[in-house]
Write a sequence for this structure.
């Protein structure tokens, strides 16, 4: 960053001119260029495919039938349970994510680097594996508690990662001012630090909430009935797609509300993180007598989220008969998984780029709508997204049906918001004035994107791609329906093996899945350190 | 300075997108003479399907999934389905496809190989193997095994019952109970069982473990779990015993895995050959010996030691196609607080 | 050589937030013009409209005879050939200094690009810095590179958006004169946005004072300072002494005596009579206006003496060069030199 003077105004728009010009004047009124708008629109349309399908299916038997399904007392109850679970997991993830982020970034925690890598590894653990390991160790956890524990332990990195980045980017001068005004460390943390990381935490919280809404694996193992489980039950018990579709529409509505709520928190705190970067890193806080409790806290989380699933898998591997699995098949499956996940991450990232850039650089209805669209399908269970792609592919894209490209498209629909959020955050890191300068020097909007915006955002975009990659690797329901016939991923193999109760045979696949997904997770943890 | 990073990133993205194109994974179903959607687990049926491939004389491609989800997929595909044959874990999914007119009627010669009780009333699907609901019990704790599931609501069984409420077979049994005795009776039974504080297990295997370890005295399971365990460890090493309920008790429901051919498919001739293979002596013996299920085709009997012949069982008479109506069952289970 | 004509430019952010209200401005070719105004007056908005980053609601912008924006016309920024130097320079952090400067030179061959880059670096006095990365430069160096980058493609017009704001005051003067020299050397027309009247007066050939979305006054620094159009402008461009007075012909009668006026109003007019503090002198005489010294502020090169004049409510400021001998509480006479302006 070019700023060498720490007191320089972080954003020209937030400067003293704010009184007469509304905040964000730099971008207000400027429409995104067609070169961005068209691909972003395509990406949004793509993400909206499941909605089109849901509209067709849920209204198949008339709106009154759909309404009957939605207005059913059981539906409302399930929704309440899902909301309750999501709220609990989000709250727990915020506590874990923010506290660990602060400890690893801003305190003199011994081994902070190691901890920061460890705290991203849970991303590699599929929710169903986490649920299974906890259930086999503590059967009494079955139900709400178990579901909340398993989901929190796999999803808190969604909060941890962005908050870590925000803490690194936040201006420590503000905290120093607070301390100088007589506020203690705790009050300073609550009044100054927390608001600084709030947009980042809110963005992560939305992803966690949507993850919880869409999760089926953990809640079904924990036997806790949620909305998504209700949707699966609808498919499994009545073989009827109409009620399932009507229920899915409710999930979409919840998603829209959540994303809108997040956008509001962002709107109010919009400029807090569009700075030109800090000139000087914060001085890590000494922990003093809190050193031991802090270390214990980190150890506990790492043990629960990382060691626990790995140890369980290790136990299965040890007790299982090694002859029941074949290293060649494992390697083959791993290769296929990596290929599909890499392609999925690549497509998702490409689609997310224009949407993320517009979301970061433009305001107004179009930009807002585009970003919202990307999120539309994210809370939907994998099966619904998969069926919607079946619906469209057999009608309009028959040649790719049950071919790898369609599966990759499903990954993109499912995980687009993750990549969009990463791109948006990455683009926000660099001041928009750089793009103005590039335009004045003769670059077209596309040229600016290629030569200035993207090179600067590349590390953040790559981080988003790594996260998407991990998610693609773990995906199961859409993979089962859309994979080329006969193709196996580690996740589908895991499903096959556990289907006959052979956990020993499943363990190598689960272990391979976690270890391979741990590589990008590890890179995510090292990102920017 | 950082430009190479971007170039590398772009190259990586491009390579990742191209990767699947060069890495041919999976069997190309366009080359396959028959595509099977199998709701039965690969581990159970893969060797048999290898035999099937030889028998029908053309390459086959198999897509494994959950029966219900594959049924939903077939419904979405409609007459453009890729599948020639649907191999379902239970009758319900086949009944659903039959109701929606997606299954092609099977030749009478194929149907005739199986007892009418174990095939679709419209003649468009046929059972390939059967499983019976039984009571597994710990002889150390149970001296007189009840002859009806209705006995289990008695107070003497309080805290002693194990079951797997989320398991499809258990739910099929409750559906059978509803079909036979009405919703009120089913509701009353569930309430009675719940009052006895049963121990819920993840699946039948775990429920069997529960009996073997003495955690519970008695459990509602499928017969083959016990026979598989005995085949693996020997009868002396297995603590539990099983009891076949007599007198047409709903607790002795026979459910089947079965197959149907898809109307929209252009693979019907091969699919029919496949159906006939699955009803052949070779395939039926496979079910009997490998999965310890009941063979359903006439003339084949199980050779599993100690397994009473299917014909000797006094199982309830019920149209298996009706097991499709699981929705109501689930609602009941939810109301009872079991799932 | 390019002149800039801005006519009737309006812009509002929403119905109740007009920022520019029909602003007119004419800048002759080769001129360095300063847009001087307080925060929020609309000067940055005008700059962004000229650059093409914002669409005006109404009005036209013509540079060198080419209409860049007007009814039905909006030339995109990249086609305007207008260079910009933003606050803090805004160098591309991922590109070396040389690549920053060469950024706008696409379309030329490599050798020409390199030659032009070197030339520009020399021009801003940073020859040999091409291989550095922006973060290795000081703030002033970054600012000069930003100017070199803007000038490299030989733009028709250069826009400078408060470019010296982020610099230390010591550094500011040096960078300012370097920038001025570089602009002169290339003969480019330039618009400098600033809220610092000293910067505007000392750097620019032409000063346009912007108030509430319009140009309140446009002229040479001397004109704007010496003959402000109204008391507000007078106060904004410098320290002002304002006393009530009555004009009759070429003179005005005020508590400071009868003062000659720069321009004679028609008939008898009452109004505020404006003088600059350096027009007033402390005098050891009992004739003429008398007052009491209330404060002395010493600035090194000069001092500001505040005097409460008999018969005036508001005290007046008197700029005194060299050593100051008066002290607060002391009585003093006052002499006035030069012409005053009258603002009815």
């Amino acid at each position: 960053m070019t700023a060498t003077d720490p007191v320089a105004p972080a954003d020209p728009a937030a400067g003293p001119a704010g009184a007469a010009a509304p905040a964000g004047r730099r971008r207000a009124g400027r429409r995104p260029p067609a070169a961005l708008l068209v691909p972003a629109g395509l990406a949004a349309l793509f993400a909206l495919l499941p909605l089109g399908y849901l509209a067709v299916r849920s209204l198949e038997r008339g709106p009154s039938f759909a309404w009957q399904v939605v207005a059913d007392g059981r539906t409302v109850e399930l929704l309440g349970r899902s909301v309750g679970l999501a709220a609990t997991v989000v709250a727990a993830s915020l506590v874990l994510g923010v506290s660990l982020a602060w400890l690893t970034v801003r305190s003199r925690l011994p081994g902070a680097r190691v901890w920061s890598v460890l705290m991203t590894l849970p991303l590699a653990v599929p929710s169903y594996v986490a649920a299974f390991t906890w259930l086999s160790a503590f059967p009494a956890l079955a139900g709400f508690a178990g579901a909340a524990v398993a989901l929190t332990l796999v999803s808190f990195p969604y909060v941890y990662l962005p908050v870590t980045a925000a803490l690194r980017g936040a201006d420590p001068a503000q905290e120093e001012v607070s301390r100088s005004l007589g506020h203690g460390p705790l009050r300073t943390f609550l009044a100054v630090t927390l608001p600084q990381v709030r947009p980042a935490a809110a963005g992560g919280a939305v992803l966690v909430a949507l993850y919880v809404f869409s999760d089926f694996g953990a809640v079904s193992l924990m036997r806790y009935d949620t909305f998504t489980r209700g949707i699966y039950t609808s498919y499994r018990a009545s073989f009827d797609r109409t009620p399932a579709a009507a229920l899915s529409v409710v999930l979409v509505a919840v998603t829209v509300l959540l994303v809108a709520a997040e956008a509001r928190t962002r709107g109010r705190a919009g400029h807090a993180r569009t700075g030109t970067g800090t000139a000087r890193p914060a001085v890590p806080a000494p922990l003093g007598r809190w050193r031991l409790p802090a270390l214990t806290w980190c150890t506990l989380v790492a043990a629960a989220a990382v060691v626990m699933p790995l140890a369980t898998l290790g136990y299965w591997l040890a007790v299982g008969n090694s002859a029941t699995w074949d290293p060649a098949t494992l390697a083959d499956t791993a290769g296929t998984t990596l290929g599909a996940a890499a392609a999925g991450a690549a497509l998702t990232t490409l689609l997310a780029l224009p949407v993320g850039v517009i979301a970061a650089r433009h305001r107004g209805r179009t930009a807002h709508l585009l970003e919202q669209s990307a999120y539309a399908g994210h809370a939907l269970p994998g099966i619904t997204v998969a069926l919607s792609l079946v619906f469209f592919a057999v009608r309009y894209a028959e040649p790719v049906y049950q071919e790898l490209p369609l599966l990759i498209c499903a990954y993109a629909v499912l995980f687009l918001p993750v990549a969009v959020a990463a791109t948006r955050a990455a683009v926000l890191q660099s001041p928009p004035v750089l793009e103005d300068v590039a335009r004045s020097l003769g670059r077209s909007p596309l040229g600016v994107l290629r030569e200035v915006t993207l090179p600067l955002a590349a590390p953040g975009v790559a981080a988003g791609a790594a996260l998407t990659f991990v998610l693609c690797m773990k995906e199961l329901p859409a993979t089962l329906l859309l994979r080329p016939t006969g193709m196996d991923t580690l996740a589908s193999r895991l499903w096959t093996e556990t289907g006959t109760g052979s956990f020993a045979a499943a363990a190598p696949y689960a272990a391979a899945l976690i270890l391979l997904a741990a590589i990008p997770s590890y890179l995510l943890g090292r990102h920017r350190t | 300075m950082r430009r190479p990073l971007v170039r590398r990133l772009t190259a990586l993205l491009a390579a990742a997108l191209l990767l699947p194109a060069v890495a041919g994974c999976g069997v190309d179903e366009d080359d396959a003479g028959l595509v099977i959607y199998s709701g039965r687990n690969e581990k159970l049926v893969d060797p048999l399907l290898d035999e099937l491939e030889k028998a029908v004389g053309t390459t086959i491609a198999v897509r494994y999934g959950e029966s219900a989800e594959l049924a939903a997929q077939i419904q979405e595909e409609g007459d453009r389905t890729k599948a020639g044959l649907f191999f379902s874990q239970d009758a319900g999914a086949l009944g659903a496809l039959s109701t929606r007119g997606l299954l092609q009627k099977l030749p009478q010669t194929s149907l005739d190989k199986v007892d009418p009780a174990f095939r679709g009333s419209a003649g468009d699907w046929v059972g390939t193997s059967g499983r019976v609901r039984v009571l597994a019990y710990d002889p150390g704790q149970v001296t007189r095994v009840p002859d009806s599931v209705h006995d289990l609501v008695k107070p003497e069984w309080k805290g002693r019952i194990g079951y797997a409420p989320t398991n499809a077979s258990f739910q099929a049994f409750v559906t059978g109970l509803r079909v036979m005795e009405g919703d009120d009776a089913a509701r009353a039974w569930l309430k009675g069982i719940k009052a006895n504080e049963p121990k819920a297990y993840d699946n039948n295997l775990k429920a069997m473990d529960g009996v073997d370890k003495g955690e519970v005295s008695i459990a509602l399971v499928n017969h083959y779990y016990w026979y598989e365990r005995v085949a693996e460890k020997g009868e002396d090493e297995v603590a539990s015993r099983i009891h076949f309920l007599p007198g047409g008790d709903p607790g002795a429901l026979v459910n089947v895995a079965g197959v149907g051919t898809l109307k929209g498919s252009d693979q019907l001739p091969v699919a029919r050959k496949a159906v006939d293979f699955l009803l052949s002596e070779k395939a039926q013996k496979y079910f009997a010996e490998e999965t310890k299920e009941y063979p359903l085709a006439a003339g084949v009997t199980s050779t599993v030691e100690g397994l009473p012949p299917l014909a000797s069982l006094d199982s309830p008479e019920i149209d298996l196609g009706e097991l499709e109506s699981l929705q109501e069952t689930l609602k009941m289970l939810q109301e009872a607080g079991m799932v | 050589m390019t002149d800039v004509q801005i006519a009737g430019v309006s812009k509002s952010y929403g119905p109740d937030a007009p920022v520019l209200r029909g602003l007119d401005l004419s800048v002759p070719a080769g001129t360095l013009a300063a847009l001087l105004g307080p925060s929020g007056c609309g000067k940055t908005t005008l700059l962004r409209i000229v650059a093409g980053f914002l669409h005006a609601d109404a009005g036209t912008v013509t540079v060198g005879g080419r209409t860049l924006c007007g009814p039905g016309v909006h030339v995109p920024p990249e086609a305007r050939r207008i260079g910009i130097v933003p606050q803090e320079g805004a160098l591309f952090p991922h590109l070396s200094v040389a690549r920053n400067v060469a950024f706008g030179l696409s379309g030329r061959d490599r050798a020409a690009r390199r030659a032009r880059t070197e030339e520009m670096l020399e021009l801003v006095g940073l020859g040999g810095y091409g291989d550095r990365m922006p973060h290795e430069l000081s703030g002033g160096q970054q600012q000069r590179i930003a100017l070199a980058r803007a000038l490299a493609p030989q733009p028709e017009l250069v826009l400078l958006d408060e470019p010296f704001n982020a610099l230390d005051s010591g550094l500011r003067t040096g960078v300012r004169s370097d920038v001025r020299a570089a602009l002169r050397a290339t003969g480019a027309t330039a618009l400098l946005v600033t809220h610092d009247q000293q910067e505007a007066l000392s750097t620019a050939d032409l000063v346009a004072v912007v108030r509430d979305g319009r140009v309140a006054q446009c002229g040479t620094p001397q004109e704007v300072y010496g003959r402000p159009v109204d008391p507000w402008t007078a106060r904004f461009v410098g320290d002002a002494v304002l006393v009530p007075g009555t004009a009759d012909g070429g003179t005005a009668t005020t508590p400071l005596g009868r003062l000659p006026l720069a321009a004679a109003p028609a008939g008898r007019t009452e109004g505020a009579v404006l003088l600059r503090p350096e027009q007033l002198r402390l005098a050891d005489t009992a004739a003429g206006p008398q007052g009491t010294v209330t404060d002395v502020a010493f600035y090194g090169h000069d001092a500001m003496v505040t005097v409460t004049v008999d018969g005036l409510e508001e005290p007046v400021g008197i700029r005194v060069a060299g050593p100051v001998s008066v002290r607060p509480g002391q009585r003093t006479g006052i002499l006035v030199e030069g012409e005053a302006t009258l603002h009815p």
Remarks:
- The interface with chain C takes residues 1-3 of chain B (CB under 8 Å).
